[in-house]
Amino acid sequence: LVPDHQHKQWYQRRVRGLWLEGNQIEYFPETLALAPELDDLKIGGNVFSGLPDCIGQLYGMRDLSISKLKLHRLPDTFEWLYNLQSLDVSENNLSVFPREILQLKALRELQYMGNGLKYLPEEIMSLENLIVLNLKENQLREMPESLSELRNLSILDLSSNQFREVPISVCDSISLKYLDLSNCHIFHLPVEMGRLRNIRSLILDNNTFDKLPETIYGMVELTELRFAKNGVTALPAEIVRLGKITVIDASQNPMDDPNHGIISGGIGPIREYFQRKLFSSRSGPPAFHVDVRGIRAAI
Description:
By secondary structure, this protein is low in regular secondary structure. Helix content is about 15%, strand content about 10%. The protein contains 5 helices and 11 strands, in the order H-E-E-E-E-E-E-E-H-E-E-E-E-H-H-H.
């Protein structure tokens, strides 16, 4: 419990930030609604499991963490938090995406990890200012087509979901700079992934695919590529066209073209390997030469 005298302090003083995570608070302090300048509240990991309607009165709230509270729903008034920019609802029981979140037009970061979510609505496109979207450890099998309309989306974490293939709407999200699709049972990487021309970090660890798409050369900004624990045997030669790449993690793949020794050396030895391979294929075997002058002399 939070003492009553502290309740009064919150609105008598001009409290802007309040961090109460990981305590044993049994109910949401409704007097918080009387703190007009409160804009940063972290109250996750407590023992209450519901939010009162008065939370919608925190109109100035910009950063809110209500993770690990066993929430099944959000109050209708939650959509009144129209200034909210960062929201963490991770590790609750929000298996159905709350429509109230879709009304938060100023939202720039949404942490929605570990909620058992099976479906992300097409209306996600209404969060047009979203930059960071974390949907890690849910039960998603597909993504809405409208995802690609989030023109400001830069960081997308879809790891530990139930995808079998990379959703095309993800490939069309050309603003992405960071994408994590590790631990997703993905058995095939589509050529459309080459459309991710702004991607810098691509994490594909622990899936089941055996080939990287040749269109990887389209990822011209790529600096980090990780695909450990898959079935890949060869790098596409087009990888040498990625001028900014500095990290390639292909560990625990049956690589032989090139081998792990070359890959561990970085992009320099990889380029040299493919250059030698290209030269060898162009030069071909030595041509058979006949000394005609010797034949004539013998005659």
